[in-house]
Amino acid sequence: MPKPFKLGLIGGLGPAATVDLFNKIVKATPAKTDQEHFKLVIEENPQTPDRTACLLEGKTDPTICLYHSAKRLEEDGCDAIIIPCNTAHAFLPYMKRYLKVPFVDMQQAALEDIATRFKEPRIGLLATSGTIKTGIYSKKAEAMGLPLFTPDEEHQKLVMSAIYGPQGAKAGFTEGVCRDELLSAAEYLVREYACNVLILGCTELPLILDETDEFPIADTRVAIVDPTAVLARKVAKLAMSENKKRGTR
Questions:
Q1: Phi, then psi, of 7 in degrees rounded to 5
Q2: Does the pLDDT of residue 33 top 90, yes or no?
Q3: Per the confidence metrics, is the pTM higher than 0.85?
Q4: 164 plus 241 within the same structural domain
């Protein structure tokens, strides 16, 4: 009997971002009954060491922890793995050497979506300092010929506060101070670099701002791209296609 497609998700990075991605996958799946949804396994481990703290401050490396989560999903028979954490993608090259199951790259998916939908994008990246430091967006954007810009030091501190601050997204806030800080950084990118597309390059940020093609800011309108939503649509399409080919749908 054919084996249905099964997706693995490394969760807990953070927990709210995991729930957000799962919800978007459910909404992106063209199912009319419970049985038409595809199999998905979540390996939730919020004790995974902080990725940004490792990259910026030399604190505990999360690679082994991430690897064990991925290995459990591989052993459970998952056909592909996703991670709702942009910064965690910086550690994938080390993990892939010891795993057979493929990962669906969230940054690549987001950039391909932008290249397809927008004629002359000028991209502003709102992300953790760890994500920016590793170049996991900028290197891929450069390879695709897409101009990408990041905030200056002052505004990058605001992005980090919107994520990690006492009133930030990881502390459970989605309105108020964190939103104001994020919008300040976004406005800087639009005014300084004429960015017309902004990437929410941390999975906590879509908890603050929604994806849209018409976001009013700095006396203009820009597109807000949510890589989490792009990833959800991509894996839903992949799962439906695989199940159709396997005759399990």
A1: -100, 140
A2: yes
A3: yes
A4: no
Catalytic residue among 54, 78, 178, 202: 202
Indicate whether 27 and 51 sit together in one domain. yes
The pLDDT value recorded for residue 109 is 98
Q: Is residue 1 part of a domain?
A: no
Tens-place pLDDT, residues 89-111: 999 999 999 999 999 999 999 99
The catalytically annotated residue of 54, 85, 178, 195 is 85
Nearest to 89 by CA among 105, 102, 112: 105
Tokens found for residue 130: 């760890």
Residue 45 lies in a domain: yes
Please check whether residue 129 lies inside any domain of the structure.
yes
Domain residues for the domain of 181 are 106-226
The answer to whether residue 85 is catalytic is yes
> How many structural domains comprise the chain?
2
| Phi, psi torsion values for 67, nearest 5 degrees | -60, -45
Do residues 62 and 121 both lie within one domain?
no
Residue 249 has what pLDDT?
Answer: 72
Token readout for 241 is: 């296609």
1 pLDDT above the threshold of 90: no
